[in-house]
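User: Can you recover a sequence for this backbone? Please restate the input before giving your answer.

Assistant: Of course. Working from this structure:
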């Protein structure tokens, strides 16, 4: 019985001092009496328009290629605010993490029929959204257990943290492009190299039993990320890769 599809919701954030909207997408044949795992992803409008996230997830679930979970998408108000909240040097980087982990997650745990443990809470993001997602995993290892990364922005400070602070139980799917050496970003860097830092991250994590990484032949675009979406989402199945 498919009770719902998409639902608009919002939450007043003490840390950000504003009302934060988000979208909840329920899986096909959703049953409110069952318990579900859930995914929190950044950049709602981009994931829906360019990533076709909901259609991709529903198709994979209907084809028995993906186990059911609920999706929570967080939109961004502007590229400037997105950078403030998702860039490691952004003025609200830590506050935004606190909103997600300390305000949004408790709210979702009460609202949704969910399994309330780290292995049942997922994160996903592209570019700065991926940066924010992996930072959350490092800061809140008992809250988030799986993450799907598409071409994250990485600086030296973050790479050093990954060498020493990555939880050994974290399950990661990591994909990036071979032609992301010169990216004009929305956060002020006109020639940013994404490929090399992501190669470094792959070397750091390659010994991790729960880590899977691959590249695509292309640049820093949604066309490429969308093509890798179905394969990347397999990290969220109960059976690990």
């Amino acid at each position: 019985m498919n009770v719902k599809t998409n639902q608009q919701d919002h939450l007043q954030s003490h840390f950000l001092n504003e009302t934060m909207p988000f979208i909840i997408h329920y899986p096909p044949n959703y049953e409110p009496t069952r318990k579900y795992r859930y995914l929190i992803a950044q950049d709602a409008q981009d994931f829906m328009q360019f990533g076709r996230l909901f259609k991709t997830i529903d198709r994979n679930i209907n084809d028995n290629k993906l186990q059911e979970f609920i999706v929570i998408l967080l939109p961004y108000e502007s590229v400037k605010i997105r950078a403030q909240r998702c860039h490691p040097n952004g003025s609200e980087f830590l506050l935004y993490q606190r909103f997600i982990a300390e305000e949004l997650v408790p709210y979702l745990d009460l609202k949704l029929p969910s399994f309330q443990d780290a292995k049942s809470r997922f994160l996903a993001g592209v570019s700065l959204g991926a940066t924010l997602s992996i930072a959350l995993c490092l800061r809140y290892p008992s809250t988030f257990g799986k993450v799907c990364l598409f071409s994250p922005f990485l600086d030296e400070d973050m790479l050093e943290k990954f060498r020493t602070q990555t939880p050994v139980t974290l399950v990661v799917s990591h994909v990036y492009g071979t032609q992301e050496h010169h990216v004009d970003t929305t956060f002020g860097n006109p020639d940013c190299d994404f490929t090399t830092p992501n190669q470094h991250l792959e070397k750091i994590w390659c010994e991790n039993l729960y880590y899977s990484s691959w590249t695509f032949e292309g640049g820093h675009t949604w066309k490429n990320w969308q093509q890798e979406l179905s394969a990347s989402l397999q990290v969220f199945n109960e059976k690990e890769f």
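That completes the design. The beta strands are 6-13, 18-25, 37-42, 69-74, 121-126, 146-150, 171-177, 211-216.
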